[in-house]
Write a structure and sequence with these properties.
single chain; two-stranded parallel sheet
Length: 105
């Protein structure tokens, strides 16, 4: 669940602790599906990190990539277009990044 922590921090920094805590409560109410990370997933994440040393993905992005591989997830909601554009999954040419790029982002 590293992405939950990262999302909370982003919301808190940009919108304040009230909305961040609302997000937290929503997570507890089950509006998201959480995919569990196993120890082997963390090993695979480190392999991805080492495969792209200049990108510096870090643990959150690398574990997201592992989950994409594990569950064949093609569509990813992210504002980190740089990292998610660099990564090349084994099961498709690239990840589809949401929201789509517009002139306002």
């Amino acid at each position: 669940m590293p992405i939950l922590t990262e999302a909370w921090l982003l919301i808190e920094a940009r919108l304040g602790s009230h909305l961040a805590n609302t997000f937290w409560k929503s997570a507890l109410e089950g509006i998201f599906e959480f995919l569990e990370l196993e120890l082997d997933d963390l090993r695979k994440a480190l392999l991805i990190e080492n495969k792209y040393p200049k990108a510096g993905f870090g643990i959150v992005d690398s574990t997201c990539f592992v989950l994409c591989e594990k569950y064949k997830i093609r569509k990813v909601f992210t504002y980190d277009r740089r990292d998610f554009s660099i990564y090349r999954p084994s099961f498709t040419e690239s990840l589809e990044l949401l929201p789509p790029r517009t002139g306002f982002m």
